[in-house]
Design a protein that fits this description.
5 strands; globular; 5-stranded parallel β-sheet; alpha/beta
Length: 171
């Protein structure tokens, strides 16, 4: 595993640190966005939750693919604005879980953005994510900038198409 840690420390009497560029003006930019995070590794889950919450997202978590399918299917359309799906998980892997979610025949389920989160970052892994019904692919280690970009893409699509909890076709 590889970890990247950014610490913003202030030396007594020194000027305040500069905010990392990926965070500039975006703290809490996604307030009210509800995401489901499917991640079996506790440390990875904690890190992703912390970053998503810094961005302002509401985060619900599950620990395997079966729980992800159950969580999505237990709620009405557009309850979740986005799903971040680990690929290598017990019970059901991320590809299998995505396939079951897409096959659930829930209202507008094809519009739910599901993004793969995996250490598998080769072109064939990205292709397999798409073929399984996922809308995108984030290679681990996950950064706050990658999450911010994925959330921005989701919001832009929903605004453009007038879909979701925040947008209605009349607007």
């Amino acid at each position: 595993s590889e970890f990247q840690v950014t610490l913003c420390l202030t030396k007594c009497g020194a000027p305040a640190p500069i905010t990392p560029p990926e965070m500039t003006g975006e703290r809490n930019a996604f307030a009210g966005i509800r995401v489901l995070l499917a991640e079996d590794n506790e440390l990875n889950r904690q890190i992703a939750v912390e970053m998503l919450e810094i961005l302002g997202a509401e985060v619900e978590t599950v620990e395997n693919g079966r729980e992800a399918v159950e969580a999505v299917c237990a709620h009405p359309a557009f309850y979740y604005d986005m799903v971040f799906m680990d690929v290598q998980m017990p019970v059901l892997n991320g590809y299998e879980a995505t396939g079951q979610i897409r096959a659930s025949k829930l209202e507008a389920i094809e519009e739910l953005p599901i993004i793969a989160m995996t250490a598998d970052a080769f072109a064939e892994d990205v292709k397999q994510a798409r073929l399984s019904g996922m809308n995108g692919h984030l290679a681990k280690p996950i950064s706050i900038g990658k999450l911010q970009s994925a959330l921005s893409d989701c919001i832009a699509w929903k605004k453009k198409n007038g879909r979701g909890r925040f947008f209605s076709p009349e607007k």
